[in-house]
Amino acid sequence: MRGLAPVRALATLLALAGGAACGDAPVVFVGSASGTPLDVPPTWQEHWFEHTQLLKLATNTDALAVYVDADVDVAKASALLPFLGSLWTYTVAHYGSMGAGRLYVVLHQGRYLGCHEDHHFSALHDGRDVIDCGFTSFDDLTKPVFLVGHVAANLVESTADDRDSSPALPLWQDSKWAEFYQYDVYRAAGETSAADTLYAQWTADNWVDDFPVAGTHWFRDWFYPLWRDDGGVDLMARFFASLAKNFPRSTTDPNGYARAMNWGEFIHFMSGAAGRDLKPLATTAFHWPAAWDALYAQARTDFPQITY
Prior knowledge:
The structure is a single chain. The chain is α/β, with parallel strands linked by helices. The longest helix is centred in the middle third of the chain and has 16 residues. A hairpin with an 8-residue loop joins strand 1 and strand 2. The chain has eleven helices and six strands. Strands 1-2-3-4-6-5 form a six-stranded mixed β-sheet.
């Protein structure tokens, strides 16, 4: 567990096309980083969950350290590297310091299908910002791109501005902020086809959630209008930075938050990031339950430094 945001594993099993794994394929080192050998060792023994593989370093740059197990087809998996590098360079540039700034990506083939993430405040993955994924093959990179983008969003919300945990997680839950992040970062990384595919899916009438009320269209009615009209990535960068500066801090964890935020605080902090009162937009998107009036008024009283 890590504060308000536990390590989250996606249960999705990826049914990618087959293809012979190259268990004896040589590990190809691409580039070098300024980090010390202790930061990026040549091998890494897994010791988390059911993972027990001895990993080998495949790529080491200032943005990425990519580790693979013995069955990964490195030649095919290497096609992911430009996307991974662009994703994390862009993320750190906009969402602030996250530990040492390097992302550790662990790739498996034929085992541990799906992805999970962890961050440098946790000892589980040796104090590193990690995305760990298993795929049946690397013949088709569409699903790896989608899944890596989702877990990267989970990692970012729990480490942005070097804070431990996500006060908004109980409100937007596992995937709603991820939709903003994925759409934006795919466009920035040149994965426009992926961004367009998700836009069509997430703006469809049948893409609805039952929180905070039944029939909510999070992306179509909330996050996409904010992305389009209020500064794109900079909007959420301002939101996380404002949380780090202004939201109550834990008395026991110098990097953590004291508690989760409520809906009034969420709309108030988002309004501050947007520089305008978002109550009208929130009313359209979330139907503004009556109880939110008192929460919103209290949030404006409790955090007067948030202005718009």
